[in-house]
Every structure is written in structure tokens, then in C-alpha cells.
Amino acid sequence: MKAATLMRIIAAGLMLVGCTGVPAGLRPVTDFDPERYLGKWYEIARLDHRFEENLSNVSARYYRKDGGGIAVVNRGYNEKSGRWEKIEGTASFIKNDSVGSLKVSFYGPFYGGYHIIALDRQSYNYAMVAGPNRSYLWILSREKTLDGQVLAELVAKAEQWDFDTSRLIYVKQDRPGA
Hints:
Elements: H1 3-16, H2 34-37, E1 39-47, E2 55-64, E3 70-78, E4 83-93, E5 101-107, E6 110-119, E7 126-130, E8 137-141, H3 148-160, E9 168-170
Antiparallel strand pairs: 1-2, 1-8, 1-9, 2-3, 3-4, 4-5, 5-6, 6-7, 7-8
């Protein structure tokens, strides 16, 4: 792993230490089925941060680890370096597994909040995830694209919930193997 990538991971971890709470006024989804959430998700839009700077074709894969925990593998293509980057972590539920509120760690004891605040309840095909505050937001889909109307509705919800949607980055999903 390159030193610059490692430094970004460490910096992100240090920023997120102890930051697992839900942003004020938001509620994670309930009646959540973790088994249906497992699998691969594509990042459609995000509020950008240093740890994802220059990344396109970002995906996340969630799967059960031996022993019952959840493993997380995030992967993206760094447009600047021309290389794929990958980081692996773990996730666990903050309250119980019927509430879409988890803490995620990619580096040692440092955890960040991962709160599913909108979800396609019928088929688990899209989700909107907040971090510990309103500067962290991701819109995810099971496919590399998301229906324009659905995306517009999610962005409108995010705006109503006081996220700065003018800063959203719409993630390219155009590389084979993404």
C-alpha cells in the first residue's frame, strides 16, 4: 500500500474516532434486514472527502465474516494515479440488526457511523447513507446507474435533511471490473 494512501486512511480514522452517532434530526431505517443488504453496492453520489479524493468506479461489498461480524471491502479507481485502490474493514450494529445503524472501522479501533437513512424497502436496490454528521453522505445502488427519478427524490430528501447537495459528486461507473 502506498504511503499516501495509508496516510489518508489513518487521517480518516483519526477524524472518525468516536464518531458513530446519528446526525441530529435523522433516524436510521428500522425493520432492517441485514441479509438483504449484504452484497455489492455501487456509489452513485457522495459528499467528497480526502479518503475518496479522485476516486471513481467506487463500490462496496458487505458480507458475513466467520463468527458473525460483517466485513466491508471498499474499492475505487484513482483517476490521478491510474490505479485501483481497495480497503477492507469491519462493521457491527450499534443497537441491534433490525436498525440500519452501524459502526464501521477500516483502521484499528477507529470507528465511524454508517446510518442508512433511506432504503428501497421492497427490493433493497438503493440506499442513502449518512455518516456521523451532515458532511458525510452516500447514495448507493445495486446497479452502476440509478433511475433518474429515484436519484432526484433521494437528492431532494437529502436537501430537506440539510445536507449540502450542491457539493454532491456524481460518481463515474464506467470501468470494466468495477
